[in-house]
Write a structure and sequence with these properties.
The complex is a heterodimer of chains A (about 140) and B (about 140).
Chain A (H helix, E strand, L loop, with lengths): L5 H22 L5 H9 L4 H25 L11 H18 L3 H10 L3 H25 L2
Helix pairs in contact in A: 2-3, 5-6
Chain B lengths: L1 H19 L4 H8 L8 H22 L19 H17 L3 H7 L5 H27 L3
Helix pairs in contact in B: 1-5, 2-4, 5-6
Classes of the chains: A mainly alpha (about 140), B mainly alpha (about 140).
């Protein structure tokens, strides 16, 4: 159970949009996290790797900065099932590579550019995630 | 200079994921659980992020070039093909199983917990597997 948090959702979403805008303004790049991770993990050149690594490091320190202001780390509930975590990670890795993006690259940056590919991709992965959660929570797990 | 700019943008983006609650996979899964413990927060996160990015991109593209690079690197493809649909469907399956997406799990690495590292290792493994598969396919079927 998590609570509906409209105010922090809107503030956080605006910050995500600002971060995406900044990356385009500074470096002319899409803030698609799957693409940035992929390019960091399988580097083509040092200059292409270094900005990706810097962006990812910035993302990783963000919860600590949040804790400085708020006095605590954000509340999270993580699955302790590591086998499921590995299986889901492999599936997401294959999916975002063939699908050329994830919730940030397609769902935010792509739709903001009114890219037809991103609109179709986002509708597809949101629909499949919805069905997956329904099946795992109400059909198989019920 | 590009490194500092990227770091700064990453901090703001990561703060957005953290503040919005999207760092918490349980909140993501509850968004998809419309028949159960529904939490609509993700819809507002995406709406706010989309509106901000759409306005921001308009202003930035109007400048002609980025600040520290010679040009914008933006995808130009418009065709919807089977690979895009199938890949997105596979991603949706994994996302719905665990609630981590790449954008949500990277800041979660900064929480000091082991689970996000396990997911990211598998995520990179999956990316490597997909790259290998597409390389095999292109070498076995030219054109």
């Amino acid at each position: 159970m998590t609570e509906f948090t409209p105010v922090s959702a809107l503030i956080g979403g605006t910050l995500i949009g600002l971060g995406a805008t900044m990356l385009m303004w500074f470096l002319g790049r899409i803030a698609g996290i799957s693409g940035i991770v992929s390019g960091a993990a399988f580097p083509q050149s040092f200059s292409d790797w270094s900005w990706r690594a810097a962006f990812l490091i910035g993302m990783i320190v963000a919860p600590s900065l949040y804790a400085v202001f708020m006095g605590h780390l954000p509340d999270v509930t993580l699955s302790s099932d590591l086998l499921k975590t590995v299986v889901a990670g492999l599936i997401v890795g294959v999916g975002v590579t063939f699908g050329a993006g994830c919730a940030s690259g397609h769902g935010v940056c792509g739709i903001a550019r009114v890219s037809p590919r991103s609109i179709v991709a986002t509708a597809t992965f949101m629909a499949v995630a919805l069905v997956t959660v329904f099946v795992t929570r109400h059909v198989v797990g019920a | 200079m590009p490194i500092i700019a990227a770091l700064f943008a990453g901090v703001i983006f990561g703060l957005g994921i953290t503040v919005s609650g999207m760092i918490n996979p349980a909140k993501v899964l509850n968004f998809f659980d419309v028949a159960g413990t529904w939490d609509p927060s993700l819809a507002l996160v995406m709406a706010a992020a989309l509106i901000t990015t759409a306005i921001g991109y308009r202003l930035v593209f109007a400048r002609g070039t980025p600040l520290v690079e010679p040009r914008f690197l933006v995808p130009t493809r418009k065709d919807v093909d089977a690979q895009l649909l199938l890949g997105s469907a596979i991603y949706g399956l994994g996302w719905g199983l665990i609630g981590y997406c790449p954008g949500g799990v990277v800041p979660a690495l900064g929480l000091g917990r082991i689970e996000p590292f396990v997911f990211v290792a598998a995520l990179v493994g999956g990316m490597g597997l997909a790259r290998l598969l597409s390389r095999l396919r292109t070498t076995s079927q030219p054109a």
